Amino acid sequence: xxxxxxxxxxxxxxxxxxxxxxxxxxxxxxxxxxxxxxxxxxxxxxxxxxxxxxxxxxxxxxxxxxxxxxxxxxxxxxxxxxxxxxxxxxxxxxxxxxxxxxxxxxxxxxxxxxxxxxxxxxxxxxxxxxxxxxxxxxxxxxxxxxxxxxxxxxxxxxxxxxxxxxxxxxxxxxxxxxxxxxxxxxxxxxxxxxxxxxxxxxxxxxxxxxxxxxxxxxxxxxxxxxxxxxxxxxxxxxxxxxxxxxxxxxxxxxxxxxxxxxxxxxxxxxxxxxxxxxxxxxxxxxxxxxxxxxxxxxxxxxxxxxxxxxxxxxxxxxxxxxxxxxxxxxxxxxxxxxxxxxxxxxxxxxxxxxxxxxxxxxxxxxxxxxxxxxxxxxxxxxxxxxxxxxxxxxxxxxxxxxxxxxxxxxxxxxxxxxxxxxxxxxxxxxxxxxxxxxxxxxxxxxxxxxxxxxxxxxxxxxxxxxxxxxxxxxxxxxxxxxxxxxxxxxxxxxxxxxxxxxxxxxxxxxxxxxxxxxxxxxxxxxxxxxxxx
Length: 533
What we know:
By secondary structure, the chain is an alpha+beta fold. Helix content is 44%, strand content 19%. The protein folds into five domains: 3-130, Methyltransferase, Cobalt-precorrin-4 Transmethylase, Domain 2; 148-210, no CATH class; 219-382, Heat Shock Protein 90 (2-Layer Sandwich), CATH 3.30.565; 387-422; 425-532, Winged helix-like DNA-binding domain superfamily/Winged helix DNA-binding domain (Arc Repressor Mutant, subunit A, Orthogonal Bundle), CATH 1.10.10.10. The radius of gyration is 31 Å and the shape is globular. Residues 10-129 form the Schlafen AlbA-2 domain.
């Protein structure tokens, strides 16, 4: 323990004691709390108020270390084996007791019993665990996942099974994942259903994915005036299958944030002030990693300065905040996380936090804020500073830009008309060649219309129709899904002959050959061909 660390004072993972208390419970409860949460260090020989290193007398050092070891062994259940060692700080000797997160939870003081002797760390103090937390600690210690437990008495209907299978397949298709049928057998393999005596039993995860059976399974959404929870401007509450709640909550946020307009040449582009990928990731993570033994709901709040998403339950099973920020993850709800992964909603690599931060950075937004409490986890995605004066200024600039574009467009049309009159015969020949090329493409790729495309593929074509030089990465950012999914859908569009790549990967562009779109432009074919020459 360095003097620099001591200067920072006590925290969730650090506690000071000037000397060894006569009542061992005053420090053994801290040992228990460390074992039940993210671990920590108990330091003897430092004043907790002044942070001054008082040190331990050398004559008492090893006697004190033995007393600490014996007290922990005699008082705590299950057994806790900390690392106890002397260290030097500011030229004086201190005792550092290091406790790692325990695997056999819950840990408690024998003298008080499990119900009153189980402690957890909250900020810089050790507090008795509430009943819901003790229940979760018990499941952690037994390696039991609440969402995989059987929901006793819940009836599994054919309609519910069929709808869930169809919806999983639909989401996979929209996310650009490989097509696959989803069956009852797969739902059983994913721990959503169990078979017993020729009957299907529902896990809690299946119930959450198909109904509003659990009263806590809701997403509360609200818009507040200002930057605190004083005045409601709008509020909604969504229930039902949790994947539907995620979609509805995301739409709620998009309806209540600004949709901006930028002009790139002759192209008008619209984009939300907050990245869609980050919004979806925040809401998905809130449901995927929430504590399902807590009766609270997921909350999504829009303020003037930020989007705030709160999930019931702190960090799970000893995961530290530092580990979380470095991309580590521990799954609290294994069945739900698995199904979300199959649907393309979430990955299993702990990338959620980094994806939120990366999406905010790519949009020029402040770094998101992550807050951990003993019973909840909160993420703040900050909105860009945008005043009414900024809005008026942008609108005026947009109007001037539109006037300039209008003048240039008129000049451009006159040039086209003049060139068209001089080259009508040549254009006619090129038009005929162009129609023959379109016909051949249609014959080679009979299924290249947009009738059978998924929503992601349609969005790709819409974006490329506005800017033919967009990269897969930029398309992914605009739609709010991974680059891998975009590349997969682009390959499918190329195989069907709807997309053709011209030029190098860096400097080339895309051509959309959808015959139905070309036929709509037959009346302007000559002008279009001239522009392509």
